[in-house]
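User: Quick sanity check before I run a bigger batch. Here is a single chain. Can you write out its predicted 3D structure?
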Amino acid sequence: MKTANSSATSSNHTTADTVRIGNLVVSRLGFGAMRITGRGVWGPPANRAESIRVLRRAVDLGVTLIDTADSYGPGVSEELIAEALAPYGNGLVIATKGGLTRPGPGEWRRDGRPEHLRAACEASLKRLRVDRIELYQLHSPDPRVPLEDSIGALVDLQREGKIRHIGVSNVDARELAAAREVATIVSVQNRYNLADRSSEPVLTVCQRDGIAFLPWFPLSAGSDAASASRALAEVAARHSATPAQAAIAWLLARSPVMLPIPGTSSVTHLEENLQAGRLRLSAADRAALD
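Assistant: Done. Predicted structure follows.
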């Protein structure tokens, strides 16, 4: 069977550098593939060759989780991933999401209907060139559709062998609990960073129960350099690092289930982000940022 993973961890990572997603083991730092598309996450990238290089370089540097969604482009991110990396090997996990549609640039609409999720998953399978998606995530609960119906559709796809593991995104603690009543949820992908910790209750549940937590927009505090946070700038300076690197290191230190997925369309920025995995914050650093 062609899948987007071989479930073995990359040989250049130690246990301390990995996190579990269900029975998969992946690198602590993943790659978010939203920014490899066109401006505004719409259409093809301005520099397709660079997007391909970014994906391949990420894998070369030991990344074993690439996160995408059918709505990125739409479809463009998944197509680029397949072009750059299929057939997938070396423990590489390709995670994707369904449940948001893109009527036009700058527009994001929820659609959690079971029939839509089934069609979205089938389309993602084709674009990614696999028979099974290793981690398929509900992109966002749809207030018009009972959450149990949306998750139930993913359970059906799981039983059919089209997805291996189920994750959720943009959920609160109550929604996470409701989803877990229907399926085994192995990951949560929520907005979380130094400036926005509103998902702390969800992270607490994930840490308690061993559910991987993928913070999206992990660099909101780091991207503005010193103006974003004096404490962050000071910590970064002590380590001869960028504020973005210090922000990623803080996330990694925050919880053992944390799996940041910073994204970029630049090989240079990719390499800078991944260097944060070597940055070890002291207790004083963490106290300053916490």
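Confidence is low (pLDDT under 50) at residues 5-16, 221-227.

User: Great, the batch can go ahead then.
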